[in-house]
């Protein structure tokens, strides 16, 4: 009843409450990081459901990542609103496409293209072009950008010129590759990620009776992170939201960090123009971060320029005072990683949980050295933003094995046999899984962490089943895994999070380490235009605002021990970190001398450990990248191919960003 629903409003401030109670929309929330946007929309849905205004099946909550969708479902369950759909644009569209394809097009739904980059390579080959591996990814990125901004191959050259976008190679060539890529997909009856949205939108536009059916199904929409919606996603949303529907969007223009993929804050900022009757709510109370962290975030915002900056909102922390952000300058990258790992160990010793700590970097290639440093200290960690848990090859394989074992075990095992986790461990052991983590880092370690998560899940499942008075056999566990895979619920790995700044969006941790904050990384070398530089600044703002209490910012003067100390800290911290003064002019020059104005403490160099040798063959390693991994690239045996793949990627990424 209504009194029951009101309980949902108890945890909200007056502005958030205004959002939650405006059930019929349109509603637009413009607010900075940590002000409770996600919380407000989650409570709004729960309020709608519990007051009986929304039927749960009629609600679609659109989130930016599958993980965010999973978290929202969990929160809604806690708030007593089960059965609400929380999905990404992509997963919602895919479901509709699968459902309506037979009727709209006929036949089977095309398969999803798995190796997109390979197909782009093939298309380039057919155009007679030779492209490097790194270039291939840029080329793929251009095709993706074109598709989400709804540019067909013929229009690509003109569109690039108009957008002031720097094409990775001749625009006419890219246009040809893009065209052939589309042709190849058609010939093979496969579709790519973007096609899922394009085709769904096209079906809904062409077939009024289908769009009527969709509109009858979903009537209440919320969109989180609306500042990063692409034109293609907006087109889909326009199809979904009918005249009788309610729409609530929340976003922060200062957190637009995906414009390279076609995302734009225009829809957020123009919401009121398109919906003159919209309730517009601004939130300024920051519930996430301490005043010290918020002070730095506000400082970054104050220096921001451009369109998004005109809509910035000063944040006001609601939390008690905490420690000041810590700024640290290191001599080289391995020293930075080692120093970070030691700080993390101190936090753990002081009782901060590993899952409440994150190390955030600009490019995924930077993770390797941190993985190594954490592994050296025996600290658990997990990589974010990589493949989704249940889609990882090792998890698929494990799933098959467990299913087989469950079938075989159905008649042989008495359920007083070994406990479930022990059975799972035994099955995984046949594929080399060990109870203790293997030494080393990279893909090998990641694979182990994934499998360990399956074991932990078995433990949790077993105790939950026991508590409910039910049996927990392997078959029940496999069914649970299937259920989770369908819901894309990855079990949380208990470890320090390593993630790119992009992947950290919307998340929060007690302690956040922002590493590698040098010119060239932040802003990244290839950010050249003022707009691109501003996006880099927003990225740092996103990073800073992930921290609840402890915030560490660090950089290294040289790449490798003994290397040339030619790096300087990011311009974005000028005037904000102690000992620095604001640099004059909008764009700071490169190559200035770092020592002159470096603030914060200076950390010692790395201990000299003698020559670093390959773990496999024992050869002394000379290449910096090999030294970091402690393996030589040419080593013939026992190396996981995936690790080398990442090594190569990392190498080229490094080559690109450090010249
Ligand atoms: P971001 O822009 O980073 O996505 P956000 O605006 O979505 O941030 P939330 O993640 O919803 O912010 O909230 C930030 C933190 O503050 C969360 O831990 C949330 O539970 C807490 N919080 C939000 N509103 C309140 C409130 N009224 N009372 C107590 N805690 C709150
Ligand atoms: Mg949020």
From TrEMBL:
Gly residues: bias regions? 588-598
The record's Gene Ontology biological-process terms are: recombinational repair
**Which residues make up the binding site for ATP?**
31-38
For whether the record's keyword set contains Cell membrane, the answer is no
Query: A Pfam family for this UniProt protein?
Result: UvrD_C
Reaction(s) this enzyme catalyzes, per UniProt: Couples ATP hydrolysis with the unwinding of duplex DNA by translocating in the 3'-5' direction; ATP + H2O = ADP + phosphate + H(+)
Report whether Hydrolase shows up as a keyword of the record: yes
What are the protein's GO molecular function terms?
3'-5' DNA helicase activity; ATP binding; ATP hydrolysis activity; DNA binding
Coiled-coil-forming residues are none
**Would you tell me the Gene Ontology cellular component terms?**
cytosol; DNA helicase complex
Which SUPFAM superfamilies does the record cross-reference, listed alphabetically? Answer: HRDC-like, P-loop containing nucleoside triphosphate hydrolases
Keywords assigned by UniProt, alphabetized:
ATP-binding, Helicase, Hydrolase, Isomerase, Nucleotide-binding
Q: Which domain of life is it from?
A: Bacteria
Family annotation (InterPro entries): DExx_box_DNA_helicase_dom_sf, DNA_helicase_UvrD-like_C, DNA_helicase_UvrD/REP, HRDC-like_sf, HRDC_dom, HRDC_dom_sf, P-loop_NTPase, UvrD-like_ATP-bd
Q: What is this protein called?
A: DNA 3'-5' helicase
Which organism is the protein's source? Peterkaempfera bronchialis
Q: Tell me the lineage of the source organism.
A: Bacteria, Bacillati, Actinomycetota, Actinomycetes, Kitasatosporales
């Amino acid at each position: 009843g209504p009194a029951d629903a009101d309980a949902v409003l108890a945890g909200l401030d007056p502005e958030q409450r205004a959002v939650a109670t405006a059930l019929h929309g349109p509603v637009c929330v413009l607010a900075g990081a940590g002000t409770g946007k996600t919380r407000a929309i989650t409570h709004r849905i729960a309020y709608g459901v519990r007051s009986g205004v929304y039927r749960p099946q009629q609600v679609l909550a659109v989130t930016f990542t599958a993980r965010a969708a999973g978290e929202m479902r969990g929160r809604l369950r806690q708030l007593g609103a089960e059965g609400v759909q929380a999905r990404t644009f992509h997963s919602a569209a895919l479901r509709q496409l699968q459902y309506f394809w037979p009727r709209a097009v006929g036949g089977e739904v095309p398969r999803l293209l798995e190796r997109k980059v390979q197909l782009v390579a093939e298309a380039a080959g057919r155009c007679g072009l030779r492209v490097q591996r790194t270039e291939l990814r840029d080329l793929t990125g251009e095709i993706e950008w074109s598709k989400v901004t709804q540019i067909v191959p013929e229009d690509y050259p003109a569109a690039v010129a108009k957008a002031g976008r720097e094409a990775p190679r001749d625009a006419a060539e890219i246009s040809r590759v893009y065209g052939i890529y589309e042709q190849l997909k058609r010939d093979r009856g496969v579709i790519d990620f973007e096609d899922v949205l394009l085709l769904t939108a096209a079906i809904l536009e062409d077939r009024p009776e289908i769009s009527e059916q969709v509109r009858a199904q979903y009537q209440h929409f919320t969109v989180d992170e609306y500042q990063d919606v692409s034109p293609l996603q907006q087109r889909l949303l326009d199809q979904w939201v009918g005249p009788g529907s309610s729409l609530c969007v929340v976003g922060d223009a200062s957190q637009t960090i995906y414009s390279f993929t076609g995302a734009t804050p225009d829809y957020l900022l123009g919401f009121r123009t398109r919906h003159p009757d919209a309730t517009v709510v601004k939130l300024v109370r920051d519930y996430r971060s301490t005043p010290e962290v918020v002070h730095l975030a506000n400082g970054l915002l104050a220096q921001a320029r451009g369109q998004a900056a005109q809509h910035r909102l000063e944040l006001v922390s609601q939390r008690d005072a905490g420690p000041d952000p810590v700024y640290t300058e290191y001599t080289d990258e391995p020293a930075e990683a080692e120093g970070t790992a030691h700080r993390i160990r101190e936090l753990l010793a002081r009782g901060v949980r590993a899952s409440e700590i994150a190390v955030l970097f600009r490019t995924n290639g930077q993770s390797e050295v941190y993985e190594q440093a954490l592994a050296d200290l025996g600290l658990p960690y997990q990589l974010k933003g990589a493949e989704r848990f249940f889609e990882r090859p090792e998890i698929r394989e494990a799933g098959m094995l467990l299913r087989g074992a469950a079938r075989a075990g159905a008649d042989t095992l008495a359920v007083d046999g070994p406990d479930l986790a022990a059975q799972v461990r035994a099955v995984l052991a046949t594929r080399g899984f060990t109870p203790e983590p293997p030494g080393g880092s990279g893909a090998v370690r990641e694979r182990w962490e994934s499998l360990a998560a399956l074991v932990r899940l078995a433990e949790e499942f077993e105790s939950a089943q026991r508590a409910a008075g039910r049996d927990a056999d392997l078959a029940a566990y496999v069914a649970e895994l299937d259920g989770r895979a369908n819901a894309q619920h990855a079990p949380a790995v208990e470890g320090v999070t390593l993630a790119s700044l992009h992947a950290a969006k919307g998340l929060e941790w007690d302690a956040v380490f922002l590493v590698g904050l040098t010119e060239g990384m932040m802003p990244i070398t290839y950010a050249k235009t003022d707009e691109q530089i501003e996006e880099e600044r927003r990225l740092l703002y996103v990073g800073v605002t992930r921290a609840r209490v402890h915030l560490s910012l660090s950089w290294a003067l040289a790449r490798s021990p003994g290397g040339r100390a030619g790096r300087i800290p990011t311009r974005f911290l000028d005037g904000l970190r102690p000992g620095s003064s604001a640099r004059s002019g909008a764009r700071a020059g490169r190559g200035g001398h770092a020592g002159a104005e470096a603030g914060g403490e200076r950390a010692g160099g790395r201990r000299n450990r003698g020559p670093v040798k390959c773990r496999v063959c024992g050869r002394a390693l000379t290449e910096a990248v090999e030294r970091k991994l402690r393996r030589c690239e040419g080593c013939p045996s026992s190396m996981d191919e995936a690790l080398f793949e990442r090594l190569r990627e990392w190498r080229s990424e490094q080559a690109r960003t450090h010249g």
